[in-house]
């Protein structure tokens, strides 16, 4: 049973004002957000998806082109790799809440292609209120940051995936957090052995999520 009052949010930096409402209301509000310039070129807002009572929330970095086109998180190549890792780890994607730190696709045009471009600090800060709202509404007991952007949003700018991946932290009363590889980072690794090792580490970290959720049940 969720507590009536929202816990302290597991974010490294405070959020001045957190939008309120059910997830469907937050999704509708986020569609009209103009807090940063990303709305001008993106097709649509890519809000989180999953049960409002999910025990675990996975936070990625920002949408890619397929997510921008569909409006759903983790549906492109990185999403397919994540699906495979979740299945190997024994996690049901349908029971998780999946979202991103930034809710709109940022890119630069290169010929006919739209190449992913990392959201800057001010764009990340502008979007933090929506992540805070999702955390406040869902109140997950386990929060997983996928990639450096999500990890630093949770744990601070000094956090390094290469050094601190897979290490659990207390993020508040009965809330635990950890960061691991983003699936897109695994896909970008240049050597097959690097990709294999990083993928194995991602699956191992997700299996730890299963164990921690079982302990907290």
Automatic annotation (TrEMBL):
InterPro entries: UDG_Type-4/5 (IPR051536), Ura-DNA_glyco_family4 (IPR005273), Uracil-DNA_glycosylase-like (IPR005122), Uracil-DNA_glycosylase-like_sf (IPR036895). GO terms for biological process: DNA repair. Residues 47-207 form the Uracil-DNA glycosylase-like domain. It comes from the Bacteria. Pfam families: UDG. GO terms for molecular function: 4 iron, 4 sulfur cluster binding; deaminated base DNA N-glycosylase activity; metal ion binding. Keywords: 4Fe-4S, DNA damage, DNA repair, Hydrolase, Iron, Iron-sulfur, Metal-binding. Belongs to the uracil-DNA glycosylase (UDG) superfamily. Type 4 (UDGa) family. This is Type-4 uracil-DNA glycosylase. It comes from Rhodanobacter fulvus Jip2.
